[in-house]
Amino acid sequence: MHISNYRRRVKAVFLICFGFLLLCVSRLFYIQFFHSSYLTSIARKQHNLFVELEPRRGTIYDVNLKPQAANMPVDSLYAVANEIKDKDKDAIISQLRAILNLSPAYLRDRLYRKKSFIWIARKINPQQGEAIRKLNIKGLGFLRESKRCYPNSYLASQIIGFAGLDNQGLEGLELYYNKYLKGAPGWALFLRDARQKKLDIWEKMVLPKDGYDLVLTIDEVIQYIAERELDKAFKAYHAMAASIVVMDPHTGAILALANRPTFDPNDYAGVTKDQVRDRAICDLFEPGSVFKIVTASAALQENRVTETDKFFCENGSYKVASHILHDHKPHGWLTFSEVIEQSSNIGTTKVAQMLGSEVVYRYARLFGFGAKTGINLPGEINGMLKEPRFWSKVSIGAIPIGQEVGVNVLQLANAISVIANGGQLMKPYIVKEIRDKYGETIKSFSPEMLHKVISLETADRIKKILVLAVENGTGRMARIPGFSAAGKTGTAQKLEANGAYSHNKFIATFIGFAPADDPVIAIAVMVDSPHPVYFGGVVAAPVFKNVASDTLKYLKVNSSSSRTVNPNETNKINPGD
Amino acid sequence: MKLNKFLSTVILATLFSLLYVYQQSEVVRLAYIGQKKQAVFQDSLDKNSILRYNINRNASLVHIGNKVLGYADFHMPESYRLVKLNPPGRETTGTNLTADKENIFSRLFGITRQAEAKTINP
């Protein structure tokens, strides 16, 4: 009886245990086969942390590998609003307001959001970060990010442009070469500990691909010289705007390019479009007398005149169709050379009338006017040059002297380079190469000749005339002590809104190169609406002189032999040379 | 025999499990140590980057130019303030004239003229 009871009880316990075991097994079976993916995903979320790995944005260097745009690690402040008690928030707002200079309304809006992560201020400076760290506020944290910085402040700012908060290019080369500079982000799945803290153990990782570096043709020193002198003229003559381009006439490499007004890319928040615009390639203006180099070159190349041929300049007044043309001072008989030297509008028009509109137009196009130069910078404009079929009867008295045409400063620099280098139109370029972080070249840009414009002999003849223009003509203020220079002045009336020429707004220009016998640099200067003085020979020519003088000294060009020396090889130069 | 085999298998499995757990905990411990060192290293790298940037900024021509133009009252002198000096090779100063006239006897007996003033036209 006892035994049978005992057995029954054992069986019952066994059955209960077996039933419980079966329940567990079936539950496990259910979890393993029907619920596993859901639970795995939850576990993965708890154990792993997906982190996007930021690539290093490429550095922008000048020709001597001095950094012009680099990355700097900075802190960004975030808040875990849920962790901050409501009663503490007002005190935190007043503390942060004092350090970060942010409005209380903005901070209140951020801190009172029911979010686990919210940015308070991104990319703050180290002093601000240190001050906030000292407050030791629970619920505030820092993330390390990289900020784009420009050590040279405003220098070449319109060329380089700037990158935004998320390191994406917004202007200039930062925008144009963004796809090379930005790199590709990577990602990693890091393990997390029980406190949800990231561990440096990753399950999977794809490394970020760093951005490529840009090496420019710009030389920081020449750029500084150009900006300094341009700034002086801009301020002294209360100008509306000013631009300068310095280039190597033999290769088309841009050594300096500057505009006024300008801006500091480190602080781009309040900049205007006027400050950001690269006027040297974006702004169109009538060049005035500097355009006479086209007419003169055409006349000599076509063998229609010689330097000694004489032209009667009508004592300063000459009727072309319904328009009466004037010279800035009356001239009688002038040789062709003197017509250019003295910048006679009437003499140049008579030369153009001999040539005809087709020839003048053909040479203007050959010199690169009316078309993009193809420089690797964003925002370049074509310029404006009418086909002869659209010329009015007055046009033959306007276009050859630089009216009714629209050019930019880069086109002028490229055109004067044609005379300097013996007649070749080069394609200007500002990026020398794209390289990876190990210095391996990814892409390089080399000098490219677009076409032959005039013969070497014609270029030499024009060069001599332009030397005389600087020595005896309108460009006397461009004379460089110790060096010979060639150039041409220009003073063009600006167009008013009603289409008439202004009597008090002018554009002063100067284009030239130095040394004249073996040119190393070609320069184009434009000053928009200078006053009270407005002549190109007075306003723009001294800028050319000062920039050329200092640049030639910097490049160690020997004044007697015009020999160039690499600036990096100064220790090899014999001072007695 | 079967029980012995079963027990040794269980012990072996337990040992391997313990070893695996120990290995995992070591990995995590080393990760914590590595993380601390990485933070120090990263901090040094960041400080280095900031210092490099500051050096670049302070050494930039714009910065130096502003300092020079801001603190030094430098102007190019007017031409009337300049004194022209002849190149050393073609110099005809009083000293040179005296030296020309010196010979071994005059030097030996000290009979040279002590000073000879002569004006130079600029």
In short:
The complex is a heterodimer of chains A (577) and B (122). With 577 residues, chain A is of the alpha+beta class.
pLDDT < 50 runs, ≥5 residues of chain A: 561-577
Name the CATH homologous superfamily of the largest domain in chain A: DD-peptidase/beta-lactamase superfamily
Structural class of chain A: alpha+beta
Rg of chain A (CA only): 35 Å
SSE run of chain B: HHHH
CATH topology of the largest domain in chain A: Beta-lactamase
Overall form of chain A: elongated
**How many E strands of chain A?**
21
Q: Specify the helix fraction band of chain B.
A: 55-70%
Mean pLDDT of chain A: 90
Total number of strands of chain B: 0
* Oligomeric state of this protein: heterodimer
Based on CA atoms alone, the radius of gyration of chain B comes out at: 44 Å
Give the count of helical stretches of chain B: 4
Strand content of chain B: under 5%
Shape of chain B: rod-shaped
Largest interface: A-B, 23 and 20 residues
Count of domain modules of chain A: 2
Distance between the termini of chain B: 124 Å
CATH class bucket of the largest domain in chain A: Alpha Beta
Explain what you see.
The complex is a heterodimer of chains A (577) and B (122). Chain A has 577 residues and is of the alpha+beta class. Helix content of chain A is 34%, strand content 23%. Chain A contains 19 helices and 21 strands. In chain A, helix 3 crosses helix 4. The longest helix of chain A is centred in the N-terminal third of the chain and has 33 residues, at 2-34. By secondary structure, chain B is mainly alpha-helical. Chain B is 68% helix and 0% strand. Chain A binds chain B through residues 66-67, 70-73, 126, 144, 149, 151-155, 191, 193, 199-201, 220-221, 224, 228, and chain B through 27-28, 31-32, 34-35, 38, 42, 45-46, 49-50, 53, 56-57, 60-63, 65.
